[in-house]
Structures are given as structure tokens and as C-alpha cells.
Amino acid sequence: MPIPTYQLYGETRHWPTPDLLHCETIAERSRLHAWHIRPHRHADLMHLLLLREGEVALRLGEMEAALDAPATICVPATVVHGFRFSPQTQGHIVTLARPLVEHLRERLPQAEVLDDAAHYPLAEQAESMPLAQLVDALDAEYRRTPAGGHDGREAMLQALIEAVTLQLWRRARRRRRFPRTGHDRGEQHLDRYQTLIETRFTRQPAIPELAAELGISDAHLNDLCRRLTGHSALQLLHARLLLEAKRQLTYTQQSIAQVSERLGFSEPTYFTRFFKRGTGMTPKAFRQRGSD
């Protein structure tokens, strides 16, 4: 059976939030699937799991393991993973979008820990408490409705995920590392393409231009994007534009014309058409919904 590529598990369209992370309990999604999350992967998202109570049979790339709580699991983008949790397992899954992972890499040398597909037991309460407290705070902040989107919520989420990353690194440096396997040439091209998107998307570059910079044809780039993500190269570029549009409309007070210009659209009307095609609503309606 082919391995499906999702946004969050079971979701194939756009990243469902203007935030660069998503936080939910293990039970919220797993209970809906009889505690069995079948093998899948994400093109540009990664997971950090904190298992507090229960057990999980884990597939992580080519590795299989049975884990008892407390433990943490790190799942980088494109790594195939699946979980079979014991019923009533407690814990959290924090999902990070690629722009946030890139930000963490720039800010923290210790963020290299996010590149390893690994699991780390938390054998003592003293080891699990700091992570658990930080993830609890992250979950509470994530679920809190911002006051108009300008009350520091995003900055708080950034600070908390940086602290979670540092705590994970402290734990990981005392354990054997599990470097990624199966990172074939196609995945390397995809990784480089996504890096180019992150640095160029506001210029709305042509796909043949980006493919030439990777040293491959645009047809080859489209083929590998569809094989590894289920989307074309242009759709991946548009998804990043749409995410940034949602973020600007949610977290800034710029006018729609200013957001349009910042994202490389020659006219606000073109931006409105693009945004409505991707979300089903106009930028104005999206912003008003967030302030209701």
C-alpha cells in the first residue's frame, strides 16, 4: 500500500491554522481512530510527542519500538511514522510547520535535535516534569483566544516551543542518536525546494526558475513533489503564500492592500481572488471572523 501524505492525520488540504504550530492531546485524534494512527508522513510538518501515561507501539522510519510512558518522540518531516496507543493513553502531540522549524534552527544551535527521528524515555519524574509543564503551558496558550490577535500570543508560543526544544535537546544529548534513514535524493531535492520556497515565496518565483536552481527540470520537480507530498510544486508554493496571508491577517494590523503587496501580488484584487480560492472566503471576511 502506498504511504499517504497528510497535513494533520487524515487531512490532505491546507495547514488548518494561521499558527506555525498545532497542539492537541493524543486522545483527541487517536480516539477517533481506535487509538491506531496508521503509517503516513508529512511533507513539511514535524511532530513532538510527550507520552505521559500508557504505551505505544511505534513505527518511526525503519525503526519499530514498544514504549512505556513517560517518553518523548521526535518525528521529522517526510519520515514515515505510525502509532498504536493503548486505550486512554495520555499526552500531547505538538506539530510544527516548516517555517517554525527553520526559525528554531536559526535561533538555537540545539534545534539540531529536531532533525533526528528518535524516541527518548523519561525514566525519572525529574526528567519528565520540566517538559510536561512546558507542554501544558503551550497547550493552554494555544487554546486561548487572542484578544484581536495582537496580545503577544504568537510570541508566547514561540518562546514556549523554544524552551521545549531546549529541554528535548538536554534529554537527547544523554541518549544514543538515531540519524535519519531512507533520505533519498528525491527527498533531498524536496528539502532544498522547500528551503527555496521559504526564502523566496514573497517574490512568487516561477517554478522553472526554482527547478533550475536545484539543477533539475520543472517536470522532474513536479513529479517528485507529487510523489512525496501529493501536491505539485506550484501548490506547495501557493500553500506557503496562503499560510503567510492568514498569519498577516491574524497577527498584524496591516491593510489588505499592504498584505497583498508584501506577498508579491501586483493588485489587491488578485490577492483577494487567490485567498478566496484557497479558503472559500475573502481576506476581509477571514479577518472579521478572527475578531468575532
Would you mind describing this structure in some detail?
By secondary structure, the chain is α+β, with helices and mostly antiparallel strands. It has 2 domains: 152 residues, Sandwich (Jelly Rolls); 107 residues, Homeodomain-like (Arc Repressor Mutant, subunit A). Helices cover 47% and strands 18% of the residues. The protein contains 11 helices and 9 strands. It has a 5-stranded antiparallel beta sheet with strand order 1-8-3-6-9. A 4-stranded antiparallel beta sheet has the order 2-7-4-5, with no helix packed on it. Strand 4 and strand 5 form a beta hairpin. The N and C termini lie far apart (44 Å). About 2% of the residues have low confidence.
User: What is the N-to-C order of secondary-structure elements (H for helix, E for strand)?
Assistant: EHEEEEEEEHEHHHHHHHHH
If you average the pLDDT, what whole number results? 87
Cα(first) to Cα(last) distance is 44 Å
How would you describe the shape? globular
Query: Using only CA atoms, what is the Rg?
Result: 19 Å
Return the CATH topology of the largest domain.
Answer: Jelly Rolls
> Main beta sheet, described?
5 strands, antiparallel
Helices, by number, come to: 11
- What is the CATH class designation of the largest domain? Mainly Beta
Can you tell me the number of structural domains?
2
Which architecture of the largest domain per CATH? Sandwich
Strand order of the largest sheet: 1-8-3-6-9
**Stretches with pLDDT under 50, minimum 5 residues:** 176-182
